[in-house]
Design a protein that fits this description.
By secondary structure, this protein is an alpha/beta fold. It has 2 domains: 165 residues, Nitrogenase molybdenum iron protein domain (Rossmann fold), CATH 3.40.50.1980; 117 residues, 3-Layer(aba) Sandwich (Rossmann fold), CATH 3.40.50. Helix content is 47%, strand content 11%.
């Protein structure tokens, strides 16, 4: 992805008055709060040694359900930069972002108008590696705006990370090009950005909301569909009850279940093992290839 002239949508996002750089405030590194894991990961990679990045959503927690503590709100107000995703994904964080005086980067605003509308319906934008490139680019530009002393470093780190995301995109493209099936059945419809990018269809047992209970009619319809399509695997998620997926798998004739990670958060154990966005996405790819019988 080219990192040329600043796009108009980011010019608005970068403009803010009364800027105080970390150096002016007597700090060696910028203090950045990121709303949940993918934003935390991107900001940490781009900021590298020049930024202290903290995730607002605890390891392993559901970002949808995040309620801010008094300490969280104080940290939001004190941060040099807050990185969020608007559109209703984390209402408490959005409310605090609107109230704070300092700069906030809303990564949804880095997308095209049509993508922004789509993100309001399905906020899981980070599951598309090319959209993740847009997020990385926006983070680098905003960090450079608040910390001009290290602007070249942010640009360098972003360029390197965008290249890694290009490689990931290539792996998905080549890995899913020759498959026996093209239907991914998931516990809830969290993977629309990924499936649309790579020409796969998605059917969720529930909708976007993982807590939504499907009606018996929906289960019956999906049971017929997976038989007709030759589906072998029903996907669930690590932090969502597997009950719905297991019920459908049983009703459809004893299909297997497997876990896909929507990367809304990583557990402490996953982090300790050195897992990150790239490694989890590659694990997801291998599981999808098995389910779709890709060569």
């Amino acid at each position: 992805m080219l990192r040329g002239a600043l796009r108009p949508v980011l010019v608005v996002a970068l403009a803010w008055a009364g800027t105080v750089s970390p150096a002016d405030a007597g700090r060696d590194r910028a203090r950045v709060l990121a709303a949940f894991y993918p934003l935390e990961w991107a900001t940490d990679r781009v900021g590298d040694e020049h930024v202290d990045v903290t995730g607002l959503t605890p390891a392993g927690a559901e970002p949808h359900d995040l309620e801010l503590t008094t300490d969280d709100r104080a940290a939001i107000e004190d941060a040099d930069l807050l990185v969020v995703l608007s559109g209703g994904f984390q209402p408490a964080v959005e409310e605090s972002a609107e109230q704070r005086d300092g700069p906030t980067l809303d990564v949804r605003r880095a997308l095209s108008a049509s993508q922004q509308r789509r993100a309001e319906r399905d906020p899981h934008i980070w599951l598309d590696p090319l959209v993740m490139q847009e997020i990385v680019d926006a983070v680098a530009r905003r960090l450079a705006a608040i910390d001009t002393q290290h602007a070249a470093a942010y640009d360098r780190e972003a360029t390197a990370l965008i290249a890694e995301l290009d490689e990931l995109d290539g792996e998905f493209t080549s890995g899913l090009v020759d498959c026996e099936r093209d239907l991914l059945v998931t516990a809830h419809e969290a993977f629309g950005w990924l499936t649309r990018r790579y020409g796969i269809r998605q059917q969720g047992v529930a909708g976007i909301d993982p807590e939504q209970e499907p009606k018996p009619q929906r289960l019956a319809e999906l049971s017929d569909l997976v038989r007709d399509e030759g589906v072998t695997t029903i996907f669930t998620e690590a932090r969502v009850s597997p009950k719905i997926a297991e019920t459908l798998a049983a009703e459809a004739g004893g299909l297997r279940t497997a876990v896909l990670n929507p990367l809304e958060s990583l557990s402490a154990n996953e982090r300790d093992r050195g897992e990150d966005y790239l490694s989890v996405m590659r694990t997801n790819l291998e599981k999808i290839r098995v389910a779709l019988d890709c060569s």
